[in-house]
Design a protein that fits this description.
Largest sheet: 5 strands, parallel
Shape: globular
Number of helices: 6
Low-confidence stretches: 108-113
Number of strands: 5
Distance between the termini: 31 Å
Order of helices and strands: EHEHEHEHHEH
Helix content: 40-55%
Strand order of the largest sheet: 3-2-1-4-5
Structural class: alpha/beta
């Protein structure tokens, strides 16, 4: 078996299927293993079926599995992609509504609303740190790629605290 790629928060259909497409078109990922992990079983099952079908139709030699156990997903991983939302999409939308009521606007150089939901950063960074600490036990040589916001704040925090 080649490399193992673990996706934490894989229930995001758009991100996960696009990642699987990228893996399928790159010959360097032949014979690799992709582990999809999410705590939402319904979303995880749906994206797993979609990704598995895509891999089969592309006739690629990529093994795909799913789990709701972060510990199981991290064991022997070579790369870990952190795409999870600790607080869920509903909480994100609630925050947008509250911020909108107080005059914040979506997108653009004035930031805030779309690119980074500042009101949930504490929860996100706490989750990023817990994934990092689990990795130190279960796959200490793996690369952590943080994709979920706040990317810059999360990377800065982890680097300052642990490097």
């Amino acid at each position: 078996m080649g490399i193992k790629i673990t996706i934490i928060g894989a229930g995001s259909a758009v991100f996960s299927i696009n990642l699987i497409k990228d893996i399928c078109i790159n010959k360097h990922f032949d014979n690799s293993q992709v582990t999809l992990m999410d705590i939402n079983e319904k979303r995880l099952n749906a994206i797993y079926r979609l990704c598995k079908r895509y891999i089969e139709e592309m006739e690629k030699d990529i093994h795909i599995e799913m789990t709701t156990s972060r510990e199981e997903a991290l064991k022997n991983a070579d790369f870990v992609l952190h795409v999870a939302l600790d607080y869920g999409h509903d909480r994100l939308k609630q925050g947008w509504e509250i911020a909108k009521q107080h005059g914040y606007r979506f997108g653009g150089s004035l930031h805030i609303m779309h690119d980074e939901a500042f009101w949930v950063n504490f929860y996100q960074i706490r989750l990023m740190e817990s994934v990092y600490l689990d990795m130190q036990r279960l796959c200490p040589k793996a690369w952590l790629l943080i994709v979920s916001n706040p990317v810059q704040a999360g990377v800065t925090y982890l680097t300052r605290k642990y490097q």
